[in-house]
Amino acid sequence: MNATSPPPWVEIAGIRLVPPPDVDAAVLAAMQSGRYEEPEMRALAATLRADDVVMELGTGIGLLSAWCARRIGSDRVFTFEANPELEAQIRQTYRLNGVSPQLKMCMLTEHAGEQEFFIHEAFWASSSEPGVGKARAVRVPTLPLNEQIRRIDPSVLVMDIEGGEHALMAFIDLHRITRVVAEIHERQLGRDRVDAIMRRFYEAGFRIDRELSAWEVCCLERHPQGPAARVLTLDEFTEGPWRLGTHWCVPHLDTLATLLPPGCRYAMVDGDQWSSLQLLPRRTRTPFVERDGQFWGAPEDDAQALQELERQRSLGLQFLVFGGTELWWLDHYTALAQRLHGQYRLIARHESLVAFAL
Q: In terms of domains, do 77 and 200 share one?
């Protein structure tokens, strides 16, 4: 490598990584800027102690386990990755950084054996859940999760398994774990299953540290002793706006909860902010325009907009909400606006929110 050639790696929090050759542009940009896995890094930097033992589910390409090994020693870091195609990348990360966490290439489940695992074209999206997009199924070895927890006796659990967390929470023995850093994948799991995951943690004495957490990465501590103001209550998580962060609808959450009754089906026209995430508890949000549950983009013309409106009404759509920066729809699709104002009931009009009952 000559003096003017860039290094073949990126550096994140002192850890060198070689980006996978097929990594997409957004992930590569996050790696190059040091923002890749930033919420997890921030939580671990604030909570990891020298006497901790870390157990990681979902090694990825080895960033977090390498960072933890640098902090507390490789013999105190145990990490598990189900995707067999990532092993060479992980071991390269460890060599680049002079660490050797205890790596096992397997999936942790309730019982030993084999299970189907879905390898996605984007490495970070591979999961025990089929998910969305191109993925191919392979058979991978499994080990019993709770046996490994008792063997390792971790104090810290790090978990990023792309939706697989829901299945594990049904039988996990949290043993003597005192802190959890977990990415919770609501886009794959849906709001109800995510709420069930968090209830399980709270029943075991864990609480979200609001200062070290940012949806969808949560830092939880068991029986926290710090100021009560740092602790997020379960009701705040399941019912309140915390998990929505800076989403445009946060100031309107109470209004929407009043206008859209529990059990209703509504569409949100907001440029697909937050994709399929459910903004309101006990209601069902659908994209507009929608195909196979996914946002399909703005209509080509009024005819397509009207066709989509009537199609979704036939499927049970009860409310249509325009918000954020997307109020231009009502000026651009004039026939749609005329149909909505002429045949349906306007139930809200604010500077950044217009809603109709259908």
A: yes
Phi-psi region of 58 (alpha: psi -120 to 50; beta: other; left: phi over 0): left
The total of structural domains in the chain comes to: 2
* Residue 140: other Cβ atoms inside 10 A: 19
**Looking at the structure, do residues 191 and 273 belong to the same domain, yes or no?**
no
Residue 127 CB contacts under 8 Å (≥ 6 apart), including other chains? 117, 118, 120, 161, 162, 163, 164, 188
15, 59: one domain: yes
Same domain, 98 and 124: yes
- Domain that residue 217 falls in: 10-244
**3-class SS of residue 165:** helix
Residue the block writes with tokens 């999961």? 127
> Would you give the DSSP letter of residue 304?
H
CA 280 to chain centroid? 17
Rounded distance between C-alpha atoms, residue 162 and residue 172, angstroms: 17
* Predicted confidence (pLDDT) per residue in 107-147, tens digit: 999 999 999 988 876 666 677 777 655 678 889 999 999 99
Please state the pTM of the whole predicted model. Answer: 0.86
Same-domain status, 30 and 149: yes
Contact call for residues 86 and 61 (beta carbons, < 8 A) = yes
Nearest in space to 69 (alpha carbons), one of 95, 89, 46: 95
Handedness of CA 140, 146, 149, 150 (dihedral sign): negative
